[in-house]
Amino acid sequence: MSSSPRYGLTTLTGVVIASMIGFGAFTTSGFSLASLGTPARVLWAWLAGGVVALCGAISYGQLARRLPLSGGEYLYLSRQLGPWAGFQAGWVSLTAGFSGAIAGSAIVFEAYLAPLLGQVQLPAGSLAVSVILVFGIGHGLLARPAALAQNAVVIIKLLVLAVFLLTAGAKWSSHPWSWSGLPDNPGNGSISRQILDFARSVMWISLSYAGFNAGIYVAAETRDPERTVPRSLWLGTILVTVLYLLLNLVFVTALPATEIVGRKEVAAIAAEAIGGASLRTLMSLVVCLGTLSSVAGMLMTGPRVFSRMADDGLFPGWFRSGPSAVQRTVGLQAGIAVALVLFLRDYLSLLDYLSSVLALSSAVTVGTLLLPSKVCSEAGGQRFPALMYVISAGLYVVATVTIAVLMALDDPRDLLGALVTLVTGTVLWAVFEGGRRRSGG
User: Bridge partners of 7?
Assistant: First the structure.
């Protein structure tokens, strides 16, 4: 019997929630308000992001049913489109999907926790590096206890958010909630400008929903993966979407728009407006927990991709699946994330890079559902998915690609990071593929 931990629906749903609820939910609406002009339009953008994410979750669930193995986008694209496409997806996972996102979450964790420490002065980056190392060691050496600790963090985070929402609900009739927009409303421009601004806001918001597919990366270590993985994806996505709508309803109406527009600490500002300094401190702790659980979730799921690539001969053999594979791949992931924390200088550029690269990678992956399945045909199964999955995949691909194109038309630099990743990934693929062929792999 395998010594690998066997994850159930509760743990896997917790991983999805943990991977989704990060810093974006608590920082994005102030910037979206600056583009869209009114709280109502901001909430529509959050709803649109949730619908797109749910379509993606349903689609990834079908992909997990087709091939219930760990490996994520790399596995699906390599089996459906070939090794080059698969390697590109794996390279995106290594650079942006996990390492970049882990580093970004850890940096925000430090930014929110440091003010709560009062007079304690720590070197810049030390808290961010520490949290990566703690969960890296945990998931590398103590997988089962780390999973239980992660579940506990998710539960605590959700309880505190529930307290915040209950506090806001208790003051619904007494607090002066504001639905008025900005005096100089940018949302009243031309139709084309409104569409571009809405698309950009949804793309920013999509980073808050990124992680809806987290369960696919540990499918091989899940009990009954054909059922458990799909359920965890759509269940976690629905719960997070409802939570995001409720939270941002409070964030964008607790104060007049002019007092929160363009502010990244919109959650803390809203908390202080409805509950004073104590609730602001509590909300800051929630942001810390959100980023903490995101780091933990991605360090748990991401390294499985590299083991799958190594098994196929497209990554150094030292990371192939085996008794020590988890420790090695988690160590690699944590090491890259730590390096990014120590050397990263432009955080906003990181966000632009993540949003464009991850959106295009996931769109291509989901798009394979619209093709005859080589995996299913080889196994004698159904080559085409049911109509529901075709509709979900089609909506996800069209929405994601349309938003990316609109952003590129508005500012071509938004796709520069994706182009650089594609070129470097192609060079590395040629190197590893050449080595594999020479060794007779």
Answer: 222
Domain extent at residue 20: 12-433
**What pLDDT does 343 receive?**
75
CB 330 within 8 A of CB 147: no
Q: Give me 21's structure tokens.
A: 């609820």
Rounded Cα distance between 269 and 142, Å, is: 38
- pLDDT per residue over 161-192, tens digit each? 888 899 889 988 888 998 888 877 665 667 87
**Contacts of 58 by beta carbon, 8 Å cutoff, 6+ apart:** 230, 233, 234, 388, 389, 392
The two tokens of residue 426 are: 């192609």
What ranges in 117-224 are assigned the alpha helix state H? 126-141, 143-170, 191-209
Encoded tokens for 53: 């994410």
Residue 2 lies in a domain: no
Among 27-31, 50-54, 391-395, 408-412, which range has the highest average pLDDT? Answer: 50-54
- Between CA 59 and CA 36 the distance in angstroms is 30
- CATH number for position 422: 1.20.1740.10
Contact (Cβ atoms closer than 8 angstroms) between residue 104 and residue 351: yes
Residues pairing with 222 in the sheet: 7
Q: Is residue 43 part of a domain?
A: yes
Q: Is the pLDDT of residue 54 over 90?
A: yes
In angstroms and rounded to an integer, the radius of gyration of the C-alpha atoms of the chain is: 21
Report the 3 state secondary structure along 372-383: CCHHHHHCCCCC
Coil, helix or strand at residue 160: helix
The DSSP letter of residue 224 is S
Task: Report the pLDDT averaged over residues 258-266.
Answer: 83
Q: How many domains does the chain divide into? A: 1
Looking at the domain assignment, is residue 6 inside a domain?
Answer: no
Distance CA 96, CA 185 (A): 35
**Which has more pLDDT, 200 or 271?**
271
Nearest to 17, CA basis, from 155, 137, 142? 155
Nearest to 245 by CA among 29, 15, 3: 29
Domain membership flag for residue 255: yes
When pLDDT is averaged across residues 295-315 and rounded to a whole number, the result is: 76
The tens digit of pLDDT for each residue in 212-240 reads 887 777 777 777 778 888 889 999 999 99
